Amino acid sequence: xxxxxxxxxxxxxxxxxxxxxxxxxxxxxxxxxxxxxxxxxxxxxxxxxxxxxxxxxxxxxxxxxxxxxxxxxxxxxxxxxxxxxxxxxxxxxxxxxxxxxxxxxxxxxxxxxxxxxxxxxxxxxxxxxxxxxxxxxxxxxxxxxxxxxxxxxxxxxxxxxxxxxxxxxxxxxxxxxxxxxxxxxxxxxxxxxxxxxxxxxxxxxxxxxxxxxxxxxxxxxxxxxxxxxxxxxxxxxxxxxxxxxxxxxxxxxxxxxxxxxxxxxxxxxxxxxxxxxxxxxxxxxxxxxxxxxxxxxxxxxxxxxxxxxxxxxxxxxxxxxxxxxxxxxxxxxxxxxxxxxxxxxxxxxxxxxxxxxx
Amino acid sequence: xxxxxxxxxxxxxxxxxxxxxxxxxxxxxxxxxxxxxxxxxxxxxxxxxxxxxxxxxxxxxxxxxxxxxxxxxxxxxxxxxxxxxxxxxxxxxxxxxxxxxxxxxxxx
Lengths: 358, 108
Description:
- The complex is a heterodimer.
- By secondary structure, chain A is an alpha/beta fold.
- Chain A has helices at residues 26-43, 61-76, 96-110, 119-123, 127-134, 139-157, 169-182, 185-191, 218-227, 246-258, 262-272, 300-310, 320-333, 339-342, 346-355, and strands at 15-16, 23-24, 52-56, 82-89, 114-118, 162-164, 195-196, 209-210, 285-286, 293-294.
- Chain A has 2 domains: 44-272, HUPs (Rossmann fold), CATH 3.40.50.620; 285-355, no CATH class.
- In chain A, strand 3 (52-56), helix 2 (61-76) and strand 4 form a beta-alpha-beta unit.
- The longest helix of chain A has 19 residues, at 139-157.
- Chain B is mainly beta.
- Chain B has one helix spanning 45-55, and strands spanning 4-12, 24-30, 65-66, 69-70, 74-78, 81-82, 98-103.
- In chain B, a hairpin with a 2-residue loop joins strand 5 (74-78) and strand 6.
- The A-B interface holds A 3, 12-16, 23, 58-64, 99, 218-219, 222-223, 226-227, 232-237, 244, 249-250, 253-254, 256-257, 357-358 and B 12-14, 17, 71-73, 75, 77, 80-82, 84-85, 102-108.
């Protein structure tokens, strides 16, 4: 009993859209998918002619589809953007080296220039080096903090004034739920913005970022890649097989299977959430060492690098209020960070899940 | 009268990692032809999911099934059509069907 497309009424439907529950044929799905992203871009005022835009490309499904769509819409609607691919090589043998091959294929397929920047070049440490020093317990925290800065540094190096990332509606709903669960009001307020790092604080030393897939369901991104035969790389990071936002993701997927609008509903709730006037939020300034944006005097990446070079890797993982204590213990004991520090690592479990999303 | 149902099963998007990195399998499923009462009369997707879990899955079944059905976040297409418009678990497999499982749970 083939079902006809709800839009054109002629062709055979091939997918049920999670957003609307409509069954669409392939051509109508492509049309709606592409047009909705175009509308998100126009309504969100994401680009202006002449922008040089770095596409954060990991070789995974979201960024592969993003690169394809950005090129397509730029040409179709004459955005007049200068698009480049920017990949970060964390230095994880057997994981990132494979996915970078996919990015190199994207470069050829879409004829977009590609730059690959490594953690080793930027920070002097690859993730393999870091794991050798600190083990597999908190490495995701390092990776997440370093990656965020790496994209900025790469974009600045390439002369880009904007970064686009492949974060989709599912990712954003997850982040909202996680920030609710952790009671992180500052992040909760920031994480729903479709564009960050521009407007509010022009002195921020970051490249503005935007998320054209903010309202795009993961299911549709995967279906689009499948029907367009776009090749992407999918695996789990070898250092974090289960750290990919585990429980929150399962919970959200369960919600979606009961009521598929739940994802957009959560995003909407996050957007309309207002923080009371009197609530003190962290003020963002610049790191004294590297001048990267930071809510602390020294940014997290610099603290982590200091920890790695001094053999006190816990420095960047625990709360900043505990850092002094670790330093004092290290001096009085005259030895490297030991078991005592480990009782402070409870926060790192949640950090793992926050950061481990490329 | 054939007493086997021949179908193709494919795995993508990281799903293959749970099946020994095999991306395509040709299955010949026994069908009750009258003499053998042990085989099912017909196969639904639900039966196929159970069969794959019992006979072919190599690791971490919780990433494939959840309470007797597919884990939310795994997409299923039958002959390139979303199973959500085919009746999901209750869809009756036909000879020559191609059933594709795509994980959306694996990152990049």
